[in-house]
Design goal:
The complex is a heterotrimer of chains A (319), B (154) and C (722). Chain A is α+β, with helices and mostly antiparallel strands and 319 residues long. Chain A has eleven helices and twelve strands. Chains in contact: A-B, A-C, B-C.
Chain lengths: 319, 154, 722
């Protein structure tokens, strides 16, 4: 960890004009500073800022302050099941008590090469190369990859939010702007170091989940090598609206397989209007991994993704 | 920088580098060595302490950012008697080498206080290489029934 | 005595492990490791490190701390760091930075610049199979290749060819790290030319001896302390890098030095269990009686060969009755981290292969796998005359099968979306003991002390010392204080090989009569309470005709502070009369998700014949932990070494060990037959046998659930995606 200056402003203006790296729960930043992956000269502790609160606004949209902790959001009664579940399947209870949801959306990839400064990494050190493409890539992405980077996006929450068309409200001294979360994250392309659309001087203020009454029937399935405290090999967020045995509407997104949270619009389209049964789910899921580019050790993900979609649909349809 | 920590009911003043984690402040500056450094990366739970009554990982917490009271395993006993969770861990043999135990106990105290439904999931943020897991669950359940009978008496 | 004696200390945070000590003036050391697997360090630029705030010293191969290579009869040579510029594995210690604070040392270490002359690294066990070398002789002194053939049989191949039913399969097990929760560490303090070292290890006397040799000081000038050890499992037998560098730097700087490996460094700079490849060929007659057994083993080892995982000698050599047996053990030297023994070395990975192959044989025969094992149970290792001293493996299987509901295994195949399978396996681990000395002291306050230098790394040895002392002196265990983890105590050897209970028990059985004799001499000697009279000792009292006194009263009357005696024991004549082993039967139930194919252990039972069980609760806990180690080997852990030699998953987020949610019911049962042919207390040790066989039982259950035979552990879900 390189020496740094730490300040703790109490007003948003002070924080936004500081030019410093924001520290909320610290579960990403402190970790990566110890590993020398991140070396900010100035850090601003934003925990005293007024970016809190979980509430449903008059339009029925759910608004969550960026500094709310994962555990508080997961436990809130007005949060959709898919969000609670994604949070409760993340990390551990201690980390969920620490990590803010703004920080959760901003967390960095868990790629072992990104985390090891002795190794090249285009995301950390542009142009240095990507050892994962020929290396230990069992955990890596098959969708949205490029020749520069194949690292997965690590957030479970982001997968649930992308499925629900969530937006984030960004604050800055220039005023605010609203961005769909799905558009906020960037594919790596040939600039994997640019992970998102947050501009200098901006902070995530709140997360807005549009009203979707039938998302009361939703869930999050996370497949991994151990039962808890691990990142996903593959995960699926699903909300399902079944009427008279047929799929009236559906939202699906996947994690653990893409360089960004991966919305499965083609599967959604294949399901809409069809029967809500196992055979239809299985048929629709066949397109889930379309466009996948498997590497030497992660080809199984192209088979696992459709299976995880079916499992999630079955679990949510059984209620 | 100068900071103030409230640890186990005592106010402690420290002059530290901002790089110092809560774990290293407790262990190396304040002599509070119950919390252990098993990984220093938030991947094992041996450093679990309570801040403001909630379990957190002291290894990923910068000491200078802590504003609320800190409680460690050393601060659980009351009137010289072990906390019911500590007693239950001893009686159920929920430990072997003991290195992870301080963190396990702090998570278990929260599991009992929060009346969690899925104890095994809740306790999964605390690795135990000796693998005392089934006994740890038994200890949480024993402490919970101790608490319930105490609550019933009140 | 209901609970382990140190439980109150461990649950309150009061137990002091090595790193919990911070003497005044302590400074902090931080190890720097290599980022290549093979080559030579041509230069190290440490100018920026020396200039960094708080830095007191930087040690490198170009500016080393003088250390000599220690040699011990039990451990062989122990590697000492920074003595040359050769790099033979990725993550090898190459530097040591000492600064006033931990943060200053850690962050200055980032500034070390190392220049290497790289050489090609051999890192693939598979690539090395073709030109593998013969391993050294086994622990029993047997050659790596051996055969036992029936009269008239020309070769094992002939015996296999003549068998009615045959299995021929190759299995693989992963490199593993002990991954004790306490990283290897040390606090070193010099005073008046004497070193005190606080460091969690498996034997304080071994540690002190290694340090004395390395530092070239009189053994009496080194005191190693390890009253509490945060797990070991074989990984803390040799003295570690932190101890050597910490002690040498503390001497150089005249300040106490505290040093710990990071978790990542533990994966390379300590040692690992080697990876193995094993080919099993088994022949049987139509009734399932073995006619031939061939077990060919390959183990990875270090570039200069060191420890080799003895998979065939540890299992097939001894487990089953067969007229024809062929064993080979080869090794493949690689540029990988040091190899060493780890919980059930040989038996754990060896049993995965043998017991999977036995299951394949049962399938081929259409026979109940339990029945197959009962039919081939041995009364002595093949080709040896010495019969097992006390073997009740059959009872373990029959009791276990009943308790587990083995007969129902074909009824319940699916539970909602989960496919259910049952598996079983044999477990065996040799009963050993080491030379051991224990001092027993009787005190005027009617308490006793039982003291030995040995370690309790979570095994319960501290509790066992009190129990054995109480039993031998016929007083309540609450009055027997145990002292251990201090190299100045009588040598108790290493906590390893599942030996400690049998070793200390045997020594106490010798020492207790001696200390009672000494007490009697005090009581009846000049000025004694019963001077010149006939006396007897019972229940903590000395009885003379019509009179008695506690031993404390006897000592007080004589003005004595204590009487003491040292009991020693070592393996002896019994080794010429019998073969000795513990035995067990493992049963597992697994669930495999119908869609996503992850495997979860849902229920397991182990029934063990381990001689006398000394402390029921600690014994069950240790067995349970070992069985969960088996689950971990089967489904979770494996250190993946990249072609470059870099470990791909050397941290606790990616080197997976089970979490609480992975482990539901673990049932443990014992058949209780004290083995007094092995040692006077009848206990055979159970730290290691518990892990043996579990990985095979799980793989067998996965086959039962899915019809897919996975011959490589850890099993991952992609193995089961059709």
């Amino acid at each position: 960890m390189r020496a740094f200056e730490l300040t703790a402003p109490t007003t948003l203006d002070e924080a936004l004009t500081s030019g410093a790296t924001a520290l909320a729960g610290g579960t990403t930043l402190v970790d990566l500073m110890k590993l020398d992956v991140l070396t900010p000269p100035r850090v601003v502790d934003i925990n005293a800022l007024p970016l809190r609160g979980i509430e449903v606004d008059p339009a029925g949209d759910l608004r969550i302050g960026a500094l709310e902790r994962m555990s508080a959001v997961a436990a809130h009664p007005q949060v959709y099941p898919v969000i609670s579940r994604a949070l409760l399947l993340s990390a551990s209870q201690q980390l969920r008590n620490m990590a803010s949801i703004g920080g959760n959306l901003m967390q960095r990839t868990r790629c072992g090469y990104f985390r090891d400064v002795a190794m090249p990494c285009n995301r950390r050190d542009p142009g240095s190369g990507c050892p994962a493409i020929e290396g230990a890539n069992r955990m890596h992405a098959v969708l949205g990859t490029s020749d520069a980077c194949v690292a997965t996006h690590a957030s479970d929450l982001a997968v649930a939010l992308v499925a629900l068309d969530a937006r984030i409200e960004l604050v800055s001294t220039q005023g605010g702007r609203s961005v769909a979360l799905a558009d906020f994250y960037r594919l790596p392309g040939d600039t994997p170091e640019r992970e998102h659309d947050l501009r200098p001087g901006e902070l995530i203020g709140e997360i807005v989940v549009p009203r979707l009454d039938w998302a009361a029937r939703s869930t999050y399935v996370k497949v991994r090598d151990r039962q808890s405290y691990e990142f996903a090999l593959c995960s699926v967020a699903v909300a399902l609206d079944v009427r008279d045995g047929r799929v009236a509407d559906v939202r699906i997104a996947a994690g653990g397989v893409g360089t960004v949270p991966w919305r499965l619009t083609a599967v959604e389209a294949a399901l809409r209007g069809g029967p809500a049964d196992e055979a239809a789910f299985e048929a629709a899921a066949q397109v889930a991994a379309d466009g996948a580019r498997p590497l030497s050790h992660n080809g199984y993900k192209t088979a696992l993704l459709p299976r995880t979609v079916v499992r999630a649909l079955l679990e949510v349809s059984r209620g | 920088m100068d900071i103030t920590l409230e640890v186990n009911g005592e106010t402690r003043h420290l002059s530290i580098d901002p790089r110092v984690t809560l774990l290293d402040a407790l262990r190396e500056r304040l002599g509070i060595t119950g919390p252990k450094k098993g990984c220093d990366r938030g991947q094992c739970g041996a450093c679990t302490v309570h801040v403001d009554g909630r379990p957190v990982l002291a290894c990923l917490t910068l000491a200078a950012t802590v504003r609320e009271p800190v409680r460690t395993v050393e601060g659980l006993a009351a009137d010289g008697r072990p906390h019911p969770v500590q007693q239950a861990f001893a009686e159920q043999d929920a430990l072997q080498c003991g290195f992870c135990t301080s963190g396990q106990v702090m998570s278990a105290v929260a599991a009992v206080e929060q009346e969690v439904a899925d104890v095994r999931e809740f306790m999964s943020g605390n690795l135990c290489r000796c693998a005392a897991y089934p006994n740890i669950v038994a200890a949480v359940e024993q402490a919970r029934s101790t608490k319930e009978s105490a609550d019933a008496r009140v | 005595m209901t609970m382990r004696t140190d439980a109150p200390l461990k649950t309150s945070g009061a137990a002091r492990y090595g790193l919990d000590v911070t003497p005044p003036g302590t400074v902090y050391g931080y190890v720097v490791t290599s980022t290549i697997a093979h080559g030579e360090i041509t230069a190290m630029d440490v100018a920026a490190v020396r200039a960094a705030p708080g830095v007191l010293a930087v040690y490198t191969p170009f500016d080393p701390l003088p250390l000599r290579t220690p040699m011990s009869p039990l451990l062989g040579e122990t590697w000492v760091p920074l003595q040359d510029t050769e790099v033979t594995y990725y993550g090898q210690p190459v530097g040591f930075v000492v600064a006033e604070t931990f943060e200053q040392a850690r962050d200055a270490a980032l500034l070390v610049e190392v220049t290497y002359d790289r050489r090609p690294a051999r890192t693939s066990l598979h690539a090395g199979l073709a030109d593998a070398l013969d391993a050294p002789p086994s622990l029993h002194g047997e050659p790596p290749t051996l055969q036992v053939l029936a009269d008239g049989v020309e070769s094992i191949e002939d015996a296999l060819a003549a068998s009615a039913v045959r299995v021929d399969a190759t299995y693989e097990t992963a490199t593993q790290n002990h991954a004790a929760m306490e990283p290897h560490s040390a606090v070193a303090v010099w005073e008046d030319g004497r070193l005190t070292l606080y460091s969690g290890t498996q034997g304080s006397d071994l540690q002190a001896a290694q340090l004395a040799q390395a530092l070239d000081v009189e053994p009496a000038r080194v005191r190693a302390l390890n009253p509490f050890v945060g797990g070991a499992f074989g990984g803390k037998g040799h003295a570690g890098v932190s101890a050597f560098l910490g002690a040498a730097a503390a001497r150089d700087l005249g300040r106490p030095v505290k040093a710990a490996l990071t978790r990542e460094q533990v994966f390379t700079a300590t040692a690992t269990r080697p990876a193995t490849v094993q080919r099993l060929r088994i022949g049987a007659d139509a009734d399932g009686r073995l006619t031939a057994l061939a077990h060919d083993s390959w183990s990875s080892t270090t570039a200069t060969p060191s420890f080799v995982e003895p998979t065939s000698h540890g299992t097939s050599r001894e487990w089953y009755t067969t007229p024809n047996l062929a064993i080979t053990q080869k090794m493949v030297p690689l540029h990988v981290p040091p190899t060493t023994f780890m919980r059930a070395p040989g038996e754990a990975p060896g049993s995965f292969a043998l017991e999977s192959a036995m299951d394949e044989l049962a399938v081929a025969l259409g026979m109940d796998p339990v029945e197959l094992r009962l039919r081939n149970s041995s009364i002595a290792p093949p080709g040896r005359d010495l019969q097992w001293s006390s073997k009740h493996l059959d009872e373990c299987f029959t009791l276990g099968a009943q308790r587990f509901g083995w007969a129902q295994r074909h009824r319940r195949r699916v539970d909602r979306d989960w496919l259910v399978g049952y598996g079983t396996a044999t477990a065996m681990f040799p009963a050993l003991r080491f030379p051991c000395a224990v001092r027993i002291t009787l005190r005027p306050d009617d308490t006793a002390e039982v003291a030995t230098s040995g370690a309790d790394p979570g095994t319960g040895l501290r509790t066992v010392l009190s129990l054995f002392g109480a039993e031998a002196l016929a007083i309540p265990p609450e009055r027997v204080e145990a002292a251990l983890g201090d190299s100045t105590l009588p040598p108790g050897g290493m906590s390893g090989g599942s030996t400690a209970t049998a070793s200390v028990g045997s020594a106490i059985a010798v020492g207790a009569p001696a200390v009672i004799d000494a007490l009697v001499a005090v009581a009846t000697g000049p000025g004694g309470l019963f001077e010149g009279r006939e006396v007897a000792y019972a229940d903590g009292r000395v009885f003379a005709e019509g009179d008695s006194a506690t031993f404390g009263e006897v000592l007080r009357a004589a003005g004595r502070d204590e009487v003491t005696a040292i009991g020693t024991s070592a393996p002896g004549e019994e080794m010429t009369k019998h073969s000795f082993s513990s035995f067990g039967a493992q049963f597992c139930e697994v669930r495999v998700h119908r869609w996503t194919r992850e495997v979860r252990m849902s229920r397991m039972l182990g029934v063990f014949d381990a001689g006398r069980i000394v402390h029921e609760q600690a014994a069950r806990s240790q067995i349970m932990g070992g069985m969960i180690w088996g689950v971990s080997a089967a489904l979770h852990e494996g250190l993946e070494i990249e072609e470059s030699g870099r470990p791909a998953n050397g941290d606790f987020a990616s080197y997976l060990i089970p979490v609480n949610a992975d482990i539901p019911t673990v049932d443990v049962e014992f058949v209780r037959y004290p083995d007094t042919l092995h040692n006077p207390v009848g206990a055979r040790g159970l730290g290691e046998i518990s892990v043996v066989g579990v990985a095979a039982a799980i793989a067998n259950a996965v086959y039962d659930a899915t019809g897919i035979r996975v011959r490589r552990i850890p099993i991952v879900l992609e193995d089961l995606l059709e």
